[in-house]
Amino acid sequence: MSLSLSLFALAFGDLFPNGIEHYALGGLFVGLGVAVIYLGTAIPAGASTFLESTLSYASNLSRFQQYHPSRDWRVVFTLGIVAGAFVYAATFQSGLVSSSLHQPATTGEFLEVGGLTLWLTEVQPWRLFLGGVLIGIGTRLGKGCTSGHGVCGVGSASSASFVGVATFLLIAIGVAQLVAALGVSP
Amino acid sequence: MSAEHEQHPLFLPLVFVGGLIFGFGLGFSHMAQPEVVLNFLQFEDFGLLFVMFGAAVVTGITFFGIKQFRSTAPLTGAVYGRRLKTLDKNVVIGGGIFGVGWGLSGICPGAAYASLGIGNITILYGIAGMFVGAYLQGYWRSASAESDAPAAAAD
C-alpha cells in the first residue's frame, strides 16, 4: 500500500516536476477572466480574432472589415491581458508578493530594471517569428486558438472545438518533439 | 456584438478587467513563458493541462450555469449562447497549421500578449509573425472569396 502510494507520488512528480498548484490556480484565473466578460456581455472572448480585427484599422480587405464592430473592445481586451501579466510581473515575479501556491520561473532569464524583475525568453527569434506566421494563418483559418477553441469552445462542449484542440495539440506535440530531436534548443 | 453595445459605459471597463484577470492567470501559470509550453509538448511537464482544462471547467460552468438565472447579458442585451463554430475541413487544416506554429515556437496568441506584459520584448518577433500570418490568410481568402462570388463581396 505505502509502496504503491510512493510509486504513484514518484510518477506524479515526474509528470509534474514543478507541481500543479500554480498551473491550476492560473488556469482558474484565465477561466475567470473569460467568465467575467461573458457574464456582462454574453461574448465568449478569444485572443486570436484580435489579429484580424486590428488589421481592419489598416486594411480594407473584407476578411478584416467583418470584425470592424468588435475591433475596439478587442484592443482593450488585449491591453488588459498585457496589463494583467504586468501586474503578475510587478508582484510575484519581482518578489514583492509571495505565496506557497506560486512557483518562481525556472526557464529563460531575468532582467532587473529598477525594482522590477522582467523575464526574457531564450527561445530563438526565428522560431518565434516563423511559428508566429503559422499561428496567424492557422488560428484564423481554423476558427480559434488555445483560448477560443481550448477554453471557450471546450467550455461550450463544441464538437468543432474538440476537433480543433485535438488537431493542434497532437500536431504541436509531434513538431516540438521533432524540433528537439533535431537538436534545436531552446 | 455590434458597435452599439460598446455605448454602455461599463462595456469597455469590464472587458479590460476580464483581460486583466486573464493575463494575470497566464503570467501566474507560466504560460507566458514559451519554454514552459515547449516542456509540456516535449512531455517534460504536463502542467499545461491543468491550465487549459482548469480554465475550460470555469468557463463551462459559467456558460451553462448562467442560463439558469437569466437569458440576456446586462451590458449588451445579447442572449447567452455557447461558442459554437461549424465543423468543416478548415478547422482541421487551420488547427494543423496552428499546431506546427505552436510546436515550433511554444507561443499562442493570448500567451504571447501576456509574455509582453512580463517583460519579454523578444516576443515581439512572434507577435509580428502572427500579424503577418493573419494578413496573408486574409489576403488569400479575400481574393478567393471575390473570385468565387463577386456579387456577395459587397457586405
UniProtKB/TrEMBL annotation, chain A:
<keyword id="KW-1003">Cell membrane</keyword>
<keyword id="KW-0813">Transport</keyword>
<dbReference type="InterPro" id="IPR007272">
    <property type="entry name" value="Sulf_transp_TsuA/YedE"/>
</dbReference>
<keyword id="KW-0472">Membrane</keyword>
<feature type="transmembrane region" description="Helical">
    <location>
        <begin position="23"/>
        <end position="51"/>
    </location>
</feature>
<protein>
    <submittedName>
        <fullName>Uncharacterized protein</fullName>
    </submittedName>
</protein>
<keyword id="KW-0997">Cell inner membrane</keyword>
<dbReference type="GO" id="GO:0005886">
    <property type="term" value="C:plasma membrane"/>
</dbReference>
<dbReference type="Pfam" id="PF04143">
    <property type="entry name" value="Sulf_transp"/>
</dbReference>
<keyword id="KW-0812">Transmembrane</keyword>
<feature type="transmembrane region" description="Helical">
    <location>
        <begin position="72"/>
        <end position="91"/>
    </location>
</feature>
<keyword id="KW-1133">Transmembrane helix</keyword>
<feature type="transmembrane region" description="Helical">
    <location>
        <begin position="162"/>
        <end position="184"/>
    </location>
</feature>
Automatic annotation (TrEMBL), chain B:
<keyword id="KW-0812">Transmembrane</keyword>
<dbReference type="InterPro" id="IPR046513">
    <property type="entry name" value="DUF6691"/>
</dbReference>
<dbReference type="Pfam" id="PF20398">
    <property type="entry name" value="DUF6691"/>
</dbReference>
<protein>
    <submittedName>
        <fullName>Uncharacterized protein</fullName>
    </submittedName>
</protein>
<feature type="transmembrane region" description="Helical">
    <location>
        <begin position="87"/>
        <end position="105"/>
    </location>
</feature>
<feature type="transmembrane region" description="Helical">
    <location>
        <begin position="46"/>
        <end position="66"/>
    </location>
</feature>
<keyword id="KW-1133">Transmembrane helix</keyword>
<feature type="transmembrane region" description="Helical">
    <location>
        <begin position="111"/>
        <end position="136"/>
    </location>
</feature>
<keyword id="KW-0472">Membrane</keyword>
<feature type="transmembrane region" description="Helical">
    <location>
        <begin position="12"/>
        <end position="31"/>
    </location>
</feature>
